């Protein structure tokens, strides 16, 4: 009677797609994994120190946090996000700059085929010290803040990713989308792909001519190939 195994920490799973379970029913292990995943994105500033000019490279690959996406494309939770950052102590706080590589997956807005890509994003952001002039003169949402001795990089990366993601991603820049009649991808079909559409008002007539052609073909005397059909189409 053992409980089902907990998902691998940070790994994308179908469970992660569902709304968060009731906190009371989540296991201790799940909560610990969640906390560790969040903490991985936190930088301890004690090594950097407060002396302006001191610098530190921060190169890591971290699992993406949940909810980094827009409707048709996003970063799968747990996907490896590569950070190549420089943390620089400045008068007012810590300047974070560098590049972030994030894998994104989604669906083509035109043909619904899967879309996969890696975004290379440039980031540059000042995290203000508590009590600094920058903090005092900026609104709550205008500047990121350093809390105690740490700063959290996840919100910066999330915001940068979400602002970069296209609302209508496409598999190729000129994806032609789907055929409105058969639903197949137009790019997979020959260029002359079309459907012969018979006007419903003439459908009965077309069927009668088909019958007529059958019977005349069987009757050797009265065979008049092609008769009739051209006349009616001119109406
Ligand atoms: Zn497409
Ligand atoms: Zn078609």
From TrEMBL:
It comes from the Bacteria. It comes from Modestobacter italicus (strain DSM 44449 / CECT 9708 / BC 501). Residues 1-31, 215-235 are annotated as: Disordered. Residues 226-235 have a biased composition (Polar residues). This is DUF177 domain-containing protein. Residues 1-13 have a biased composition (Low complexity). It holds the Pfam family YceD.
